[in-house]
User: Which sequence fits this backbone?
């Protein structure tokens, strides 16, 4: 004659314990991400119509905090290349930030009337650079009309003025 043991009470207790742990973890996750900064970045390979580069957007609590776009163009053989660097943060004193719905517009104090628009997309951001001039660039370099960041560490999508 053998002894039969039932595991049903242990399974129920394990399920209840698992539920409590998961439920409390979910509560902690939402509390711990409040105020956290999310970074979205991408790299732009050199193409036929534009230079290589990269872009990044930092967001805290759903509000864009900073933007950084850089492009690099090769020089003549044996000569240094040229670059464009556009960087702005909410606290830099060199730009004015406004939010209209989901879009953020950054207006630069210098050069006057230059601005960019940052638009959220599912999983990333589009940076509209069409209202910037080459003031951010060295000779022979340019910024694209727009750059799209989807995720982090991905390849940027760029639209160049041809």
Assistant:
């Amino acid at each position: 004659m053998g002894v039969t043991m039932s595991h049903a009470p242990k399974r129920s207790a394990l399920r209840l314990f698992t539920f409590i742990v998961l439920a409390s973890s979910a509560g902690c996750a939402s509390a711990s991400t409040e105020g956290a900064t999310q970074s979205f970045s991408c790299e732009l390979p050199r193409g036929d119509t534009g230079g290589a580069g990269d872009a990044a957007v930092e967001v805290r609590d759903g509000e864009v905090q900073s933007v950084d776009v850089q492009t690099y163009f090769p020089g003549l053989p044996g000569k240094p290349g040229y670059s464009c660097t556009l960087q702005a943060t909410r606290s830099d004193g060199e730009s004015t930030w406004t939010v209209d719905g989901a879009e953020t517009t950054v207006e630069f104090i210098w050069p006057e009337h230059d601005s960019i628009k940052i638009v959220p997309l599912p999983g990333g951001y589009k940076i509209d650079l069409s209202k910037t001039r080459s003031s951010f660039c060295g000779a022979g370099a340019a910024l694209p009309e727009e750059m799209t960041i989807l995720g982090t560490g991905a390849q940027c999508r760029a639209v160049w003025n041809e």
